Amino acid sequence: MKKISLTGIKPTGILHIGNYFGAIKPALELTKEYDARYFIADYHALNTVKDPVELTAHIRQVAAGWLASGLDPEKVIFYRQSSIPETFELTTFLMAFTAKGLMNRAHAYKAAVQENAEKGDDPDAGINMGLFTYPVLMAADILLFDSDVVPVGQDQSQHVEMAQDIAQAVNFNYKAELLRVPEVSIRENVAVVPGLDGRKMSKSYGNAIPLFAPEKELRKLIMRIVTNSQGVEEPKEPESSQVYLLYKLFATAEEQAALANRYRAGGMGWGEAKEELFRVANRELTPLRQRFEELLANPAGLDTILAQGAEKARPIAARTVNRLRKAAGLG
Ligand code: TRP
Q1: Which atom of ligand 1 is nearest to the CA of 137?
Q2: Is the pTM higher than 0.90?
Q3: Strands 35-40 and 77-80: what pairing?
Q4: Is residue 45 within 6 Å of ligand 1 at its C-beta?
Q5: CA distance 138 to 158
Q6: From the CB of 44, is ligand 1 less than 6 Å away?
């Protein structure tokens, strides 16, 4: 039996290159070795996205994004979190085993409280229970499907550790391995993708390159990447330039070595370095962009793919919930 890999993407905005290299690609790589269950965490998105039209659009874009990037729904169980009601029963179950103090320590919640303190606001201002209990819902996503590994970015590793703690608390109480304790999987070399300003690429920093940006926009954004003031003739250190770090993500090993030599030799300006980056980025992204547009043009087709995935997922989810109900005396 193959081990199980599971991850979720929150449909709160459009996918960017950081999502692609940090989340989508490593997760798709794992599908060669693992039975994969990948889903759209739409109830997690509801914490912040309150406009229904926007939420539906984000869900479809994320679904089309994964499929365009190569997710094969015949091989991967691909579904929407909201199509699996067992998730919400398991969440309630896990609440009884989750220390409130554990939630107080969650990074996202702590950051929100801290921000309120800095503004002199009430500590709870703008914080809903969805944010506070976010890690419990995420633990339910993970534990429902007997996940062995959870490929995520560094920022999510604390949540996976909380899922481990919660699973262990359940298993300890019933003296049985009712829930599989998952491991976190972080690809160190690709986990951080630099954004236009050199900080980690992130929607919230406004420094992201959208994964499916039309060719013209892609080029324009690449030309906007911040560089130092070294002139054309000066030798440049490739590894300290985000233009080169992004280039590495798209280029072959030979291309990387060749361009690094040109940086170090001097005589190549930032404009040319950026043209090279655009060339390799556009080469990889053009076919993805085309598939993405085709998929989005047929929303009913997307909904069918997700509904079929949910049909495969639900019996697995039901088994987990039934196992727990029985063990707990709720049977
Ligand atoms: N919290 C994750 C994020 O923001 C999304 C997510 C929800 C998730 N449930 C999950 C990731 C379960 C992995 C496993 O990126």
Answers
A1: 9
A2: yes
A3: parallel
A4: no
A5: 11
A6: yes
